[in-house]
Amino acid sequence: MLKKVRINNFLSCQDTEIELDNITALIGRNAAGKSNVLKAIQWCAQFAVGNIPLYEYFSPFSEIKAECDIEFLINDETFKYEIRITRKSPGLGLASIGKKEDTVLIEKLSCYINDEWLLVADREDVCATHYNEEAINVEINAEIAMISSLLALLPKKRLNPTINKVFNYLSEIKYYTLESDQYENGALGKYSHIVLDSAYDEWLSKNNKSELSVVMRLLRLWHEDKDLLEEIEALVGKNGLNLIDNIVISKSSFGQQDENLFYVVKFNVADTTVSYTQLSYGTQRVLTLLLALLYDKNSTLLIEQPEDGIHSGLLKKLLPLCFEYAAVYNRQLIIATHSPEVINLLPPESIRLVRMTENGTKVSPLDEERIPFILNYIENEGVLFDFIESLDDE
Amino acid sequence: MYVVIAEDTSDFNCLRILIKRLENKEAISVEGKGFGSCGNMMNKGAKFLSSYNEQNKYRKLIICHDRDESSYQGIYEKVVSKIVNNAKIKSEKLICILIPTKEIEAWILADIKAVSKVIPSWQPKDEYLHPEDIKDPKETLIRLSRTNRPKPLYSHNTHNEQIMKHIDLEMIKKKCPSFAELAKFVESGTANYPKRNVSIHFPL
């Protein structure tokens, strides 16, 4: 579980700190920097495990130094991963960006033991040091993250087991906009209920990268985990959220040849049968959210405005359901939201107010001393959103 | 037609289903809303109900407020002073101030086996003879579901109203005095305002 994040010079987060709970809601007006906080966490974690390039989101114009530290809990151990990018010659503009000779990359991975931070590994530029029974120095690529480099370069028996544990945890921090991916938006056009066997195989071969296709994930469940497919069907079905009666998946072929195999993925909704792209925008987002929680099995989900396109009555069912799943399956949810409905479903302790100041994005919890007053307000006066709306957010 | 107001949307949706079942008329109109919190209902309930005064559309009004840790009489009087009096409801309307002893989830505990009709993998074994004596019925259901890990997981906002379609109304009437009061109001028009029906025993 992510406990604390500190961000410097990353988009609008010039000097931003945030403490996180099992469920945390980032609340603030547009352009306050809510999404930038989520993107910074995603960037830091995914860069650390080698899933995205160093320069994604890193502005070439003004930053001399960008930093992000994340503190996290794996079982009962607390770790900290720090990344610092310093440009040697700021002001050279676009031409120098991405050039390793212009950048010094510093990374540290530490573990909190007996009231102090002990280094597990660190790197400066191309030199990494790994601490286990002895310190081992390794030369690594200037633009590739330390953790993934050490995993690739060091023999398993010399590797501190912590590295693997941290790699697995950070890999499971994922940012969700809940939008349909490219595959579902266009590749299949009006025949989006048909998936060629070859397309499915191709998707499978690059799974766990960035292709979050709902149709493909349902198809994979149909092949490999019918119980979970039934559970998702029950969640969206008549006894659940009442959005889709059935999910119907079948396999067929255009002829006798194996290479002409295809799958049909259809949804029965109120006596009609539709393809995924014909489902309403909100229903598509609900399916995406449920698959994020149940299929992806990530430890930390960074979710962008889950309320978009979803009726307030449905939202009041969907979000508590997600919170139940998150609690039972030990998933952390960090949500950026504008929705009064979402806010009113949350305990005041989970709220983080995000403000844009002259020093960039600032994040703060509700004043601890105010919590009893807020609870009393909810009991006797109104809803949490009314209270938050009354705060001075300048 | 009925107008129902409740603390949250889930409670309102459950009451709508139960009223239709008790009336044995799916087509009967049940309007109203859940307010998202107790405080919100207390402050906005009267204004909401006032909007119905000119419409003359409904005959029966139900105001549902959990008793939680308070006394029955305390909640009853609070509802009267903050909602009923301020809404200036016409005298010909029948009013039921419905106060579930803890929460309406106690009604589900009364016929816990009904959950299997909605979540077949959840097959509860225990029976609750006095569900309204249970301190926290909602938490009890959540705890039971977590022990059983049914698929899908139980979530009261999603599943309560589905379960209400299946619970045995006669069994709940016997086990839950607060539900019996609702049933009496719906089935025979016995209002508990201006004077609460004293024939039903509630600990005050």
CATH topology of the largest domain in chain B: Rossmann fold
Number of helices of chain B: 9
The largest sheet of chain A has its strands arranged as 2-1-4-5-6-7-8-9
CATH class of the largest domain in chain B: Alpha Beta
Shape of chain B: globular
* Low-confidence blocks of residues of chain A: none
Structural class of chain B: alpha/beta
Rg on CA atoms of chain B, Å: 17 Å
> What sequence of helices (H) and strands (E) makes up the elements of chain A?
EEEHEEEEEEHHEHEHHHEEEHEHEHEEHH
State which percent range the strand residues of chain B make up: 5-15%
Which pair has the most extensive contact? A-B, 29 and 27 residues
Share of β-strand residues of chain A? 25-35%
Mean pLDDT of chain B: 91
Summarize the helix and strand pattern of chain B as letters.
Answer: EHEHEHEHHHHHH
What would you say this structure looks like, in words?
The complex is a heterodimer of chains A (394) and B (204). Chain A has 394 residues and is an alpha+beta fold. In chain A, 31% of the residues lie in helices and 31% in strands. In chain A, the strands form 3 sheets. An 8-stranded antiparallel β-sheet of chain A has the order 2-1-4-5-6-7-8-9. A 6-stranded mixed β-sheet of chain A has the order 10-15-16-3-17-18, sandwiched between helices. Chain B folds into 2 domains: 2-101 and 176-188, 3-Layer(aba) Sandwich (Rossmann fold); 106-173. Chain B contains 9 helices and 4 strands. In chain B, strands 2-1-3-4 form a 4-stranded parallel β-sheet, sandwiched between helices. At the A-B interface, helix 7, helix 9 and helix 11 of A face helix 2 and helix 7 of B.
Topology:
The complex is a heterodimer of chains A (394) and B (204).
Chain A: E1 2-10, E2 13-19, E3 23-27, H1 34-48, E4 65-74, E5 77-87, E6 103-113, E7 116-124, E8 127-131, E9 135-139, H2 146-153, H3 161-171, E10 173-176, H4 182-187, E11 194-196, H5 197-205, H6 214-224, H7 226-236, E12 246-253, E13 261-269, E14 272-274, H8 281-294, E15 300-304, H9 312-328, E16 332-337, H10 340-344, E17 351-357, E18 360-365, H11 371-380, H12 384-390
Parallel strand pairs in A: 3-16, 3-17, 10-15, 15-16
Antiparallel strand pairs in A: 1-2, 1-4, 4-5, 5-6, 6-7, 7-8, 8-9, 11-13, 12-13, 13-14, 17-18
Chain B: E1 2-6, H1 9-23, E2 30-34, H2 38-50, E3 60-64, H3 72-87, E4 94-98, H4 105-110, H5 115-118, H6 137-148, H7 156-164, H8 169-175, H9 177-188
Parallel strand pairs in B: 1-2, 1-3, 3-4
Helix pairs in contact in B: 1-7, 2-3, 8-9
